[in-house]
Design a protein that fits this description.
The chain is α+β, with helices and mostly antiparallel strands. The protein contains 11 helices and 13 strands. The protein has a domain of 117 residues: Enolase-like, domain 1 (2-Layer Sandwich). Helix content is 37%, strand content 22%. The strands form 4 sheets. Strands 4-5-10-6-7 form a 5-stranded antiparallel β-sheet. Helix 3 packs across helix 4 and helix 9 packs antiparallel against helix 10. The structure holds flavin-adenine dinucleotide. The site of flavin-adenine dinucleotide has 32 residues, from strand 2, helix 2, helix 5, helix 6 and strand 10.
Length: 290
């Protein structure tokens, strides 16, 4: 019989995690229950963190949002649209309403699928993951969190407490290709963040490599061109060769495989298209900003 642990607060959750390092953590259960139903997991002990109130809090400072690990997609959609448009847009594309009501941002990180929809916006925004255990808390950059498909830096006894994300100071876009709206796992996805105050560009690529990726050369290329042409101060339409140069570099950053959802060649092609569109949308929005 499976033991079921249900802490009522955060200190209790960390203590139980330390006492039961082999327990399977469950938040919304939308990944865990599928694995149990298909017989891929048969845990002796479940640690259900869905009743921990501290994990359900979204708090704001002037610069950042701290989003508790057990915040669901439905809440992201409803509550962070103006603070973090790309993450809210990603939440909108996740599964069906039922999945969005149960699935959490911490569970997405816990699973660490290369196709997880939260990951590209977190990478593009240079988010940090707050990880805790009974011995303390550490912050890990989103770019350092993922190690391999479905593997991350979490150690035994640790839980994701929250994600810290800089608030949007400019346009943000999330775009995803898949076969069907609702229940669609990304064939590939892309987040693009423009940050006019720091003149930085951020990217995140999903489902086109062993882990979620950043298109660093594409970011550098675009930042250099925008700075050289004085575009941040006097934004004008972007030249087509700049848009295609950016899109080519995003596509070149991908390290996709062929799988049931799409071929590697299709993913590279789709990413190039998404990158061109995302930059066009984001730049049009920037030009209209007061
Ligand atoms: C029909 C369907 C459609 C889906 N569509 C999408 C989609 O479009 N996009 C997408 O990205 N995903 C999708 N998913 C996958 C899933 O919904 C997400 O990954 C979701 O974010 C998981 O969150 P959860 O709270 O349900 O996680 P759970 O299933 O409870 O846990 C997932 C993993 O994370 C671990 N975990 C959970 N919380 C923590 C924590 N705080 N600290 C450490 N480890 C933790 C668990 O141990 C487990 O390994 C879909 C799933 C289904 C069944």
């Amino acid at each position: 019989m499976t033991a079921f642990l249900r802490p009522a607060n955060w200190p209790q959750a960390l203590e139980l995690r330390a006492e039961h390092p082999d327990a399977l953590v469950v938040a919304g259960g939308t990944d865990v229950c599928v694995d149990i139903n298909f017989g891929r997991l048969s845990p002796e002990c479940l640690l259900d963190i869905s009743a921990v109130p501290e994990l359900a809090v979204i708090s704001r400072s002037d610069e950042r949002l701290r989003i508790g690990a057990a915040v669901t997609y439905s809440r992201l959609l409803a509550e962070i649209q103006t603070d973090l448009p790309a993450l809210a847009a990603a939440a909108r594309t996740v599964g069906s309403l039922q999945i969005r009501n149960r699935g959490t941002i911490g569970g997405n990180l816990g699973t660490s699928s290369p196709a997880g929809d939260c990951h590209p916006p977190l990478l593009a925004s240079r988010a940090e993951i707050e990880i805790s255990s009974v011995t303390g808390t550490r912050m890990v950059a989103a770019a350092e969190f993922f190690l391999a498909p479905k593997r991350n830096v979490l150690r035994p006894g640790e839980l994701v407490a929250a994600v810290h994300v800089p608030r949007a100071a400019g346009p943000q876009v999330f775009a995803k290709t898949g076969t069907r709206n609702a229940m669609v796992i990304a064939i590939c996805s892309l987040a693009l963040v423009l940050d006019p105050p720091t003149r930085r560009v951020g990217t995140g690529i999903g489902s086109a490599g062993p882990v979620p990726l950043q298109a660093v050369q594409a970011q550098d290329y675009l930042m250099e061109a925008l700075n050289a042409e004085g575009q941040w101060d006097r934004p004008r339409p972007l030249p087509p060769d700049l848009i295609s140069g950016f899109a080519d570099r995003v596509a070149a950053a991908a390290r996709p495989i062929d799988d049931v959802r799409g071929s590697a060649a299709y993913r590279v092609h789709a990413l190039r298209v998404l990158a061109g569109r995302a930059l066009t949308w984001a730049w049009d929005e920037f030009r209209e900003m007061p």
